[in-house]
């Protein structure tokens, strides 16, 4: 059974400067809840209880958020505001949080490799908090992917169709449809951030993965790309050549909160859902 979820959260968030000069991007709120809390809640919805977070020295706010705030709790004890901390305190009490610091920013593959001591030799999920997803039927993206993993017992990537003028931002898959009902493909090729002209499909990988532990040894042997980064797409390509990667077109809606436009869209969407707008 998969119990661990890895959250790469060491990035600098330069697209949101100057806000990210002192505040981790993962702690940006959608209404009153940080992006990373949404991510942890999604992991919990898939029965993942061990949260492994890759951070850096400037992101202590993440550790503080998923810990007790005794002074604050004392200040609001007995008031109506005490209710506002019940949700996060329940998460802190139920889930286990472990942390490791990433010393260099060398791509998502390197970030995942950095998390190996927290994961060990077992399959695990990876969640990028930038990609905030909702599901109308209530089953989160990770919950859906765990079900796919149980069937195929190999690495799973979440995909969605994106406009061709946006395809250069993503890893793109080529695959054979193996289950029309569940929109699953056996991946035969993967390309990292192709130009629209060179993109073989518009099926883009988004920030959800289920990975088998052999991915760590593959990442160790994966050469950096032209920008000096180790890409998870390249490592997954090695697995796909053996038929061990499944792409799943998830059911739900995604907001790219790594961009200002996507962040604003997510805020407006959740505000409307809660009747604020």
UniProtKB/TrEMBL annotation:
One of its GO terms (biological process) is UDP-alpha-D-glucose metabolic process. InterPro entries: GalU_uridylyltTrfase_bac/arc (IPR005771), NTP_transferase_dom (IPR005835), Nucleotide-diphossugar_trans (IPR029044). Its EC number is 2.7.7.9. Gene3D superfamilies: Spore Coat Polysaccharide Biosynthesis Protein SpsA, Chain A. CDD domains: UGPase_prokaryotic. GO terms for molecular function: UTP:glucose-1-phosphate uridylyltransferase activity. It catalyses: alpha-D-glucose 1-phosphate + UTP + H(+) = UDP-alpha-D-glucose + diphosphate. Pfam families: NTP_transferase. It comes from the Bacteria. Residues 9-271 form the Nucleotidyl transferase domain. Keywords: Nucleotidyltransferase, Transferase. Belongs to the UDPGP type 2 family. PANTHER family: UTP--GLUCOSE-1-PHOSPHATE URIDYLYLTRANSFERASE. May play a role in stationary phase survival. This is UTP--glucose-1-phosphate uridylyltransferase. It comes from Candidatus Vesicomyosocius endoextente. The lineage of its organism: Bacteria, Pseudomonadati, Pseudomonadota, Gammaproteobacteria, Candidatus Pseudothioglobaceae.
């Amino acid at each position: 059974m998969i119990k661990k979820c890895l959250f790469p959260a060491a990035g600098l968030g330069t697209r949101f400067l100057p806000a990210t000069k002192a505040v981790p991007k993962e702690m940006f709120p959608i209404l009153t809840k940080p992006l990373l809390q949404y991510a942890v809640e999604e992991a919990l919805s898939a029965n993942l209880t061990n949260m492994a977070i890759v951070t850096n020295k400037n992101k202590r706010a993440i550790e503080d958020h998923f810990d007790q705030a005794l002074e604050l709790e004392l200040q609001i004890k007995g008031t109506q505001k005490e209710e506002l901390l019940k949700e996060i305190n329940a998460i802190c009490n139920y889930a286990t949080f472990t942390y490791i610091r990433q010393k260099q920013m060398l791509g998502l593959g390197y970030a995942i490799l950095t998390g190996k001591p927290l994961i060990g030799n077992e399959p695990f999920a990876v969640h990028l908090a930038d990609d905030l997803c909702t599901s109308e039927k209530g089953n989160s993206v990770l919950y859906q992917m765990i079900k796919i993993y149980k069937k195929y017992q190999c690495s799973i990537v979440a995909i969605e169709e994106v406009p061709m003028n946006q395809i250069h931002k993503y890893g793109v898959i080529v695959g054979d449809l193996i289950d029309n009902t569940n929109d699953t493909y056996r991946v035969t090729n993967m390309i990292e951030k192709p130009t629209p002209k060179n993109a073989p499909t518009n099926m883009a990988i988004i920030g959800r993965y289920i990975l088998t532990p052999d991915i760590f040894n593959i990442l160790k042997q994966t050469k950096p790309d032209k920008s000096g980064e180790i890409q998870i797409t390249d490592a997954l390509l090695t697995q796909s050549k053996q038929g061990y990667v499944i792409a799943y077109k998830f059911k739900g809606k995604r907001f790219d909160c790594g961009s200002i436009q996507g962040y604003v869209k997510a805020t407006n969407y959740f505000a409307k859902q809660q009747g604020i707008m």
